[in-house]
Amino acid sequence: MRVILAGGGTGGHVIPALAIARELQTLDSADCLFIGTSRGIETRLVPAAGFPLELIQVGALNQVSLMMRLKTLFGLPVAIWTALRILRKFRPDVVIGVGGYASGPAMAAAVLRRIPMLAFEPNVVPGFANRIVAPFVSAAAVHFDETKKYFRNCHVTGVPVRAQFFDLSSREKMRAAGGPPILLVFGGSQGARAINQSMCEAVSGLREKTPNLQIIHQTGERDYSSTIEAYEKLGIKAEISKFIDDMPGTFARADLILCRSGASTVAEIAAAGKPAVYVPFPRSADDHQRRNAEAMQNVGAAVMLEERDLTAAKLVALIAGLISDPWKLQAMCEAARRMAHPNAAREIAELVKSLATSSKVEANG
After folding, report:
1. pLDDT grade, residue 342 (50/70/90)?
2. Are 348 and 319 in a shared domain?
3. Which of 4, 23, 31, 62 would give a disulfide with 349, using CB separation of 3.0 to 4.6 Å?
4. 240 is in which domain, residue-wise?
5. Do 79 and 107 share a domain, yes or no?
6. Nearest CA to 231 among 220, 221, 219?
7. Are 124 and 297 in contact (CB under 8 A)?
8. Residues 271 and 200 occupy one common structural domain
9. Domain check: are 90 and 171 in the same one?
10. Is 36 in a helix, a strand, or coil?
């Protein structure tokens, strides 16, 4: 089986796509090729994972200026032609669109060549590229039940995440009885300035409300020094780092997580069965982070705090209230686990295999 995985831009697109590709290799010894753009994180992650990557040139159409939109539209035929050339050369049995800039032209090329397509959509509301190709896809794999209305032949598979997030039972899990509560704060690999600044303003109040609270704070590169300085001025000790390499192990230690609500983050927290306070990035495409946070809040797995409401007073009241209520935290843990999908990569790979098999039967019929 030969499969193209198209799209990228951010880790939220690329990391699940790599997990799907690895599972396809395991399940069917599939030959996988990625299509992306030169400015996406796929240029670093895909070759490092050992997969070939073809690049096309395409801009954005969603949430950009009129000039950028016109430039992208004028360049779109060339991007589709380039994708067609790649498809003719590689001859895939299935094309998977994972969202992002390169997904649209590659999926359009697959439509023109009548190649079966699978849309992978990790957010509650599909991204722009997946919304455009939705009427043409053969099947879709989604994380949230609410997303099924956008696609035909839609399957709730979840988002592939590392197995370590599911296997916290063999690591430090919840704190020992009477041990200090632990709050984990992070904003993705680059950090989140609004969360960093609000935590610096709220940390003294948090310690007053919960004197034994321990804090693990991942700041990202740009806010690391200022965050260290703010904590030191207040005389508060915390584990502060630019990046956290062992995120599953850090999740295992945490009693509560404060973070953004990108699709991969939400899926990892669900896999770990951890309660969370989500602060959606307000300028995310199609406001998808808010919709992700709402979905988790609606099932009792998390609390959403919008950035416009992110004040020190509200943060102190919310976090201190949750930390002091172990029954509430436990209920949130259980609700989060119910949203987890430990077999997501396998289910998506099997769906891709079924599309390829059905297409070959039709071609030979």
Report:
1. very high
2. no
3. 23
4. 165-338
5. yes
6. 219
7. no
8. yes
9. no
10. strand
Query: Do 120 and 206 fall into the same domain?
Result: no
The number of distinct structural domains making up the chain is 2
DSSP annotation string for 272-341? HT--EEE---TTSGGGHHHHHHHHHHHTTSEEE--GGG--HHHHHHHHHHHHT-HHHHHHHHHHHHHT--
Query: Are residues 181 and 144 part of one domain?
Result: no
Percent of the chain surpassing pLDDT 70: 89
DSSP 223: T
pLDDT of residue 173: 47
Does 60 score more than 60 pLDDT? Answer: no
Q: What is the dihedral of CA 31, 87, 41, 100, to 10 degrees?
A: -120
Burial class (CB in 10 A: 0-12, 13-18, 19+), 124: buried
Say if residue 30 is in the same domain as residue 140.
yes
pLDDT at res. 74: 55
Q: Which helix (H) or strand (E) holds 224?
A: helix 224-233
Buried b (16+ CB within 10 A) or exposed e, 1-18: bebbbbbbbbbbbbbbbb
Instruction: Among 19-23, 65-69, 198-202, name the one with the lowest average pLDDT.
Output: 65-69
Beta bridge partners of 140: 119, 154
The rounded distance, in Å, linking the Cα atoms of 251 and 28 is 33
Q: Is the pLDDT of residue 344 over 50?
A: yes
CATH classification at residue 354: 3.40.50.2000
Query: In the prediction, which pLDDT does 241 show?
Result: 93
SS3 state at 358: helix
Order the strands of the 31-36 sheet from edge to edge: 53-55, 31-36, 2-6, 94-97, 117-121, 139-142, 154-156
Measured distance CA(96)–CA(110) in Å, rounded: 10
Mean pLDDT of 195-211: 93
Q: Are 124 and 102 in contact (CB under 8 A)?
A: no
Model confidence at 170: pLDDT above 80: no
- Same domain? For 219 and 293 the reply is yes
* pLDDT beyond 80 at 85: yes
